[in-house]
Amino acid sequence: LPAGGAPLRRCSTRAAPEGVNKAVIDRIIRVDHAGEYGANRIYAGQMAVLGRSSAGPVIQQMWNQEKDHLKKFNELMVAYRVRPTVLLPFWNVAGFVLGAGSALLGKKGAMACTVAVEESISDHYNSQIRTLMEEDPEKYKELLQIIKQFRDDEREHHDIGLEHDAEAAPAYTVLKTAIQIGCKAAIFLSERI
Amino acid sequence: VRCQLSPPQRPLQASAVLRRVSDEQKKEPLASSSQQHFNSHPTDHQPEQEPQGPRPSYTGQGGQESEDYESEEQLQHRILTAALEFVPEHGWTAEAIAEGAKTLGLSVAAAGMFHSDGSELILHFVSQCNTKLSELLEQEQKLVQLGKAEKKPTEQFLRDAVEARLRMLIPYIEKWPQALSILLLPHNIPSSLNLLTSMIDDIWHYAGDQSTDFNWYTRRAVLTGVYNTTELVMIQDSSPDFEDTWRFLENRVADAMNMGNTAHQVQSTGEAVVQGLMGAAVTVSNAETVRAVR
């Protein structure tokens, strides 16, 4: 290090919109976008297997809501100039495989997967809401509203999954734990890379 | 230097020394580049206010210092901006920084605030150029929004943006190879990479890129490649007004656009082939069924 030099802060060329905490917002939007993208692919996988069964319409409806969520995060991503996670192609495949794989265990397996994933996602949204509330509820009002709405939607999916006998799925506890560990890992990675 | 300071000199002490020297020398006409910062450095006739303690605080602690004070950072920026004038002669070195400090009425010891290899000077220059580019692109965007200008097609936009940014190197082009090699030193790579990526991201943002998938990365990677190769061509280009460079740039950007189209075509072909195979499989399976039934 130079004899007297404090590191010189470079002027950033990217001005944050209205002085938001760029680092925090960056992570939040990136991981949420990845999450909704993954959820989309999971439902796509489930539909590929169970599309023509009795569970088809229920899964399709939940999938449609996830599509809306993804669309919203696409818009937020452009508005806040956030970069998407590099792992998107990986979540593309992994999500589909998870959805199709759980659906091959039958309708209850698919519902168990839905319950596990949606529970992870609602917990994750809850902690984001807490973070934003701690930062500045007024500044992040719009984002908070969106995340709260989505959290409620995911909770609803979770409840629908339970209603459709998710707990009767083969090896329910093992399946649920494994999927939730995977979700935690996915969240950790997507926030950072 | 008429101050008693105990070694080792710390950054704040060094700046304090320089400030006092400059105040004592009174103001000779300052270099034009520092005029814009003159507001932060008004009448030195008034004695410096000592907020509390023996030394004035330069960083914003407690908000005690008056508006007259510029932070150490602002001072460093001023020195580096003034030093740019001397780069064509002295290169990206401590000498240029020292000369720059002299024009601001500071002691040549000011160069001691910075790394001896001129890293900060180069990074400061790159950061300044990037800011200028952003402002330029922002203005262009405003004109388009107000309907006073036509929206350029992407290919032309990228070409013009890269050309505008590279033209900022022209006054320093002789010494630019030296700067590039310094920017590649391991301890500079995080900063220089950061500056490069944010510049490329800016260009794509103003070009209207709204991708939210892996395209985000491929587009930026491709444009970075175009920018870097064109920069290298430029530093050894001797044609009038660098026309060879701009022609090279045009070709590379055209290649980049073609890449996008080709990728698209490959995908469509792939999908068509899959559909064809599925159709063939269904036909064969039907034929087998008919045969089995008969």
From TrEMBL, chain A:
<dbReference type="GO" id="GO:0046872">
    <property type="term" value="F:metal ion binding"/>
</dbReference>
<dbReference type="GO" id="GO:2000377">
    <property type="term" value="P:regulation of reactive oxygen species metabolic process"/>
</dbReference>
<keyword id="KW-0503">Monooxygenase</keyword>
<dbReference type="GO" id="GO:0006744">
    <property type="term" value="P:ubiquinone biosynthetic process"/>
</dbReference>
<keyword id="KW-0408">Iron</keyword>
<keyword id="KW-0472">Membrane</keyword>
<dbReference type="InterPro" id="IPR009078">
    <property type="entry name" value="Ferritin-like_SF"/>
</dbReference>
<dbReference type="GO" id="GO:0008682">
    <property type="term" value="F:3-demethoxyubiquinol 3-hydroxylase activity"/>
</dbReference>
<keyword id="KW-0479">Metal-binding</keyword>
<protein>
    <submittedName>
        <fullName>COQ7 protein</fullName>
    </submittedName>
</protein>
<dbReference type="GO" id="GO:0005634">
    <property type="term" value="C:nucleus"/>
</dbReference>
<dbReference type="Pfam" id="PF03232">
    <property type="entry name" value="COQ7"/>
</dbReference>
<dbReference type="GO" id="GO:0010468">
    <property type="term" value="P:regulation of gene expression"/>
</dbReference>
<comment type="pathway">
    <text>Cofactor biosynthesis; ubiquinone biosynthesis.</text>
</comment>
<dbReference type="GO" id="GO:0008340">
    <property type="term" value="P:determination of adult lifespan"/>
</dbReference>
<keyword id="KW-0560">Oxidoreductase</keyword>
<keyword id="KW-0831">Ubiquinone biosynthesis</keyword>
<dbReference type="GO" id="GO:0005743">
    <property type="term" value="C:mitochondrial inner membrane"/>
</dbReference>
<dbReference type="InterPro" id="IPR011566">
    <property type="entry name" value="Ubq_synth_Coq7"/>
</dbReference>
TrEMBL record, chain B:
<dbReference type="GO" id="GO:0006744">
    <property type="term" value="P:ubiquinone biosynthetic process"/>
</dbReference>
<feature type="compositionally biased region" description="Polar residues">
    <location>
        <begin position="31"/>
        <end position="41"/>
    </location>
</feature>
<protein>
    <recommendedName>
        <fullName>Ubiquinone biosynthesis protein</fullName>
    </recommendedName>
</protein>
<keyword id="KW-0496">Mitochondrion</keyword>
<dbReference type="InterPro" id="IPR013718">
    <property type="entry name" value="COQ9_C"/>
</dbReference>
<feature type="region of interest" description="Disordered">
    <location>
        <begin position="1"/>
        <end position="74"/>
    </location>
</feature>
<dbReference type="InterPro" id="IPR012762">
    <property type="entry name" value="Ubiq_biosynth_COQ9"/>
</dbReference>
<comment type="subunit">
    <text>Homodimer. Heterodimer; two heterodimers of COQ7:COQ9 come together on the same side of the lipid pseudo-bilayer and form a curved tetramer with a hydrophobic surface suitable for membrane interaction. These two tetramers assemble into a soluble octamer with a pseudo-bilayer of lipids captured within. Interacts with COQ7; this interaction allows ubiquinone (CoQ) isoprene intermediates presentation to COQ7 and facilitates the COQ7-mediated hydroxylase step.</text>
</comment>
<feature type="domain" description="Ubiquinone biosynthesis protein COQ9 HTH">
    <location>
        <begin position="72"/>
        <end position="102"/>
    </location>
</feature>
<feature type="compositionally biased region" description="Basic and acidic residues">
    <location>
        <begin position="20"/>
        <end position="29"/>
    </location>
</feature>
<comment type="similarity">
    <text>Belongs to the COQ9 family.</text>
</comment>
<keyword id="KW-0809">Transit peptide</keyword>
<keyword id="KW-0831">Ubiquinone biosynthesis</keyword>
<dbReference type="InterPro" id="IPR048674">
    <property type="entry name" value="COQ9_HTH"/>
</dbReference>
<keyword id="KW-0446">Lipid-binding</keyword>
<dbReference type="GO" id="GO:0008289">
    <property type="term" value="F:lipid binding"/>
</dbReference>
<feature type="domain" description="COQ9 C-terminal">
    <location>
        <begin position="189"/>
        <end position="260"/>
    </location>
</feature>
<comment type="pathway">
    <text>Cofactor biosynthesis; ubiquinone biosynthesis.</text>
</comment>
<dbReference type="GO" id="GO:0005743">
    <property type="term" value="C:mitochondrial inner membrane"/>
</dbReference>
<dbReference type="Pfam" id="PF08511">
    <property type="entry name" value="COQ9"/>
</dbReference>
<comment type="function">
    <text>Membrane-associated protein that warps the membrane surface to access and bind aromatic isoprenes with high specificity, including ubiquinone (CoQ) isoprene intermediates and presents them directly to Coq7, therefore facilitating the Coq7-mediated hydroxylase step. Participates in the biosynthesis of coenzyme Q, also named ubiquinone, an essential lipid-soluble electron transporter for aerobic cellular respiration.</text>
</comment>
<dbReference type="Pfam" id="PF21392">
    <property type="entry name" value="COQ9_N"/>
</dbReference>
